[in-house]
Design a protein that fits this description.
The chain folds into 2 domains: 34 residues, no CATH class; 51 residues. The longest helix has 10 residues. It has 6 helices and no strands. It is mainly α and 103 residues long.
Length: 103
């Protein structure tokens, strides 16, 4: 039978507003993060998004680096201060086909 947790709204709200994640709170209270999220909502807390915000980029610069200068994705990522997967996502979003590997 599942156990009933009595989690204090004031303490949960304070910790969450100070930056604690639902995962960290779940470890503290020895329960599942979804349980913490449910209790936070019941306490009237609006949960933060767990997703990263989309990062704006200079499309012209990206096209120049990728299409004209033909830099590898790793070098483009370093130049634009993003991850390689972000560079790949931008390429796909712009509909630019992948380059063939050099042999």
């Amino acid at each position: 039978m599942p156990r009933r947790l009595s989690l204090p709204c004031d303490r949960l709200r304070a910790l969450y507003n100070e930056g604690a994640t639902t995962i960290a709170l779940a470890r503290l209270y020895r329960c599942h993060p979804a349980t913490i999220a449910r209790h936070l909502r019941q306490c009237g807390v609006v949960l933060r998004s767990g997703r990263f915000a989309a990062r704006p980029f200079d499309e012209a610069l990206f096209r120049r680096l990728y299409l004209e200068e033909r830099l590898p994705l790793t070098r483009i990522a370093v130049a634009l201060n993003v991850s390689v997967s972000t560079v790949g996502n931008w390429r796909r979003r712009l509909g630019i086909p992948p380059r063939r590997r050099r042999t």
